[in-house]
Amino acid sequence: MLNSRNLLSNFKLISKRLLLQNCFLCGVDSNQLLCVACLADLPYQTIRCERCAKPLALAGLCNECQQKLPLYTNVQAVFSYIYPIDKLISVAKFKENLAILDLLGNLMVKYLQFEPRPDVMIPIPLHPKRLRQRGYNQSVELAKCIRKYTGIPLDYNSCQRIKNTRPQVGLSVSQRKINIQNVFKIEKIASNWKHIVLIDDVMTTGSTVEALTKEYLQVGIQRVDVWCCARR
Ligand SMILES: [Zn+2]
Ligand SMILES: [Zn+2]
């Protein structure tokens, strides 16, 4: 026969079981997607280029930025693109794990809370063909999550990706510039946009955000920053 005390302890046990899941990375019981230890171990960026956020051994500007400063003003990259961030992003990207994207977006918000607030966030557009294959744009999902916590407006109609490029990784600097030429087309911008932020999941060479920055500066935007989840 159950008395009220038994009922209460059963209830507590059941609700604890419902809340518990396994940490996505190490498998221990956790009440969140990642356990406290795995969350604390994530590879937040440390020493990086002060302009493009490329990981460096010594603080300052990287070689490429010393030769020619990029057109964007500032890059904030939350993580280095190493384990387990590489794994989390690729699971989010190719297995449509929106819970992981939401977690990454949430961590970005915490990291970016003291950054100058832009008029609008613009996720890097995917080519329509790639969008159809994948079903969603991971940069849009990250931006939606940032909007949820900050209220910063989000736009994904002002720019189209009109050329489906091959990946920039492994190309030389000049090949990258040719590969990314005439990739984006700005359709329309709002009259109150002076400062925009481009949202990217992984920034690799920087040539994509540079090309997009150039387009937005040409139509009258005054400042372009980049917020990315991870930097290679
Ligand atoms: Zn864990
Ligand atoms: Zn740099």
Describe the structure.
By secondary structure, this protein is α/β, with parallel strands linked by helices. The protein has two domains: 41 residues, no CATH class; 188 residues, 3-Layer(aba) Sandwich (Rossmann fold). It has nine helices and eight strands. It has a four-stranded parallel beta sheet with strand order 3-8-7-4. Strand 1 and strand 2 form a beta hairpin. Helix 4 crosses helix 5 and helix 5 crosses helix 7. The radius of gyration is 21 Å and the shape is globular. The mean pLDDT is 89. The protein binds zinc ion (2 copies). One zinc ion (ZN) binds next to helix 2.
As for the CATH topology of the largest domain, it is Rossmann fold
> What count of domains describes the coordinates?
2
Summing up helix and strand content along with how strands pair, one would put the structural category as alpha/beta
- Please bin the fraction of helical residues: 25-40%
Low-confidence stretches: none
Strand numbers in spatial order across the main sheet: 3-8-7-4
Shape: globular
Total strand segments: 8
The CATH class of the largest domain is identified as: Alpha Beta
Q: Tell me the β content.
A: 15-25%
Number of helices: 9
The major β-sheet equals: 4 strands, parallel
Average of the residue pLDDT scores? 89
The bound ligands are: zinc ion
Q: What is the rounded Rg?
A: 21 Å
Q: Main traits of this protein?
A:
alpha/beta; 39% helix; globular; 8 strands; single chain; 2 domains; two-stranded antiparallel sheet; Rossmann fold; four-stranded parallel beta sheet; binds zinc ion; 232 residues
